[in-house]
Amino acid sequence: MVQDPAQQAPSVTPATPARTLVPTILPALAVGVLSSLVLVGVETAAEELQDVLWGPLPDALGIGRYSVAWMFVVLVATGLAVGLVVWKVPGHAGPDPATLGLEAPVLPPAVLPGLVLATALMLAGGPSLGPENPIIAVNVGLAVWLGGRLIPRAPGRVWPALAEAATIGALFGTPVAAALAISELLARQETRGMLWDNLFAPLTAAAAGSLTVALLDHPSFDLNLPSFGRPGWSDLLAAVVVAGAGALLALCAVRAFPYVHGAFRRLKHPMLMLPAGGIVLGALAAAGGHLTLFKGLDEIATLAHDPDGWSAGEFAVMTVVKLAALVVAASCGFRGGRIFPAVFVGTALGLCAHALVSGVHPSVGVSAGVLGVLLAVTRQGWISLFVAAVLVAEPGVIALLCVASLPAWLLVTGRPQMQLREDGTSVR
């Protein structure tokens, strides 16, 4: 029996015509620029307030800028300020931040001002969270609200994808990060069409966002760590071990996350939960030092500037304290994301490995530590690889990280991640 040639031919996903993609360029560019401006605006305002809180104000009061007393005062005051916003401002600064990831819900416009204010106060006050989750949520809400009014015939699902991609591109200073994150999201969904057709508009938005931030803020993730030349077998072994250790350590924090979250939720009121979180964070800052405050990007640059400037014990304390501070800040109600403080945890862990074993090159230790911690915290494989590689900016490290990611992924896959459902159970 002869088969019909049409039945023998393999199925081919049809490509989207160019005339369908071209009209998406202008909306994507607009969303990219707007999203990056929101990010830069919030971070700039937070930095101005941070400079006052941790500079002229304690100087005028005759208190050390990073004395234990002042760290307690500012962190508790930040908890009170954010608690007041969550309690009284319309929208209550959005949903429980422990339930949010990079894929943000569409929030009503009335919620967004409170979320912006709570995020800026958190960034300035020192809790160990980054801006990514709330800023993505704000930009998604703005894009859906404005886009639905300006181009009502556009599919509603387009605007969240554009805003998420634009914000990720702006956060990491390159559209590559957004392309990796969006491609991972598409792989989990049933999507029609070719991959690059689906990526066209989000990648345009991400390019606009990253270029706008590059022109305004000149971000850089390269830590300028010492070059390690051609990787050898010892480097491969070090990368595998450190990445695995980072994944296991972060999984301990992930395991504790729902229990810590439940303990704060028993307080039931934001004016109790957030100040209580500030007290715990103050105690952690007293144990770990001021480098364990804030989202962590400026602080990892300080560590990388002198990788031999601290002992293995000091690096270990900073690693554990920062990880604990991340869990507490994300559990008690501060609005923020978990990627940037996780990068600090991985960096401190990698430098601890270098301090313990001199044969572990700082660049290998840092990149592998960041990879392992991010895999456990985010379960975003591409983002974890990208961030770990861009911190070192050496082509030779990419092959090491790709190999190290395999056993680390076996440790984390199928296990809970650092995100909760509405009922307080862990997302897997």
TrEMBL record:
Q: Which Gene3D superfamilies would you find in this protein's record?
A: Clc chloride channel
Instruction: Give TM regions.
Output: 20-42, 63-86, 106-123, 135-152, 158-182, 194-216, 236-260, 272-293, 313-332, 339-361, 381-412
Q: Which InterPro entries match?
A: Cl-channel_core, ClC, ClC-type_chloride_channel
How is it placed in the membrane, per its record? Answer: Multi-pass membrane protein
A Gene Ontology term for the protein's cellular component: plasma membrane
Keyword flag Transmembrane: yes
Q: Which domain of life is it from?
A: Bacteria
Entry keywords, A to Z: Membrane, Transmembrane, Transmembrane helix
| Cell location | Membrane
For this protein, the record's SUPFAM superfamilies field holds:
Clc chloride channel (SSF81340)
**Molecular function terms, GO-annotated:** chloride transmembrane transporter activity
Statement: the UniProt record of this protein carries the keyword Transmembrane helix: yes
Alphabetical list of PANTHER family matching this protein: CHLORIDE CHANNEL PROTEIN CLC-E, ION-TRANSPORT PROTEIN YFEO-RELATED
- UniProt protein name: H+/Cl- antiporter ClcA
Species for this entry: Streptomyces paradoxus
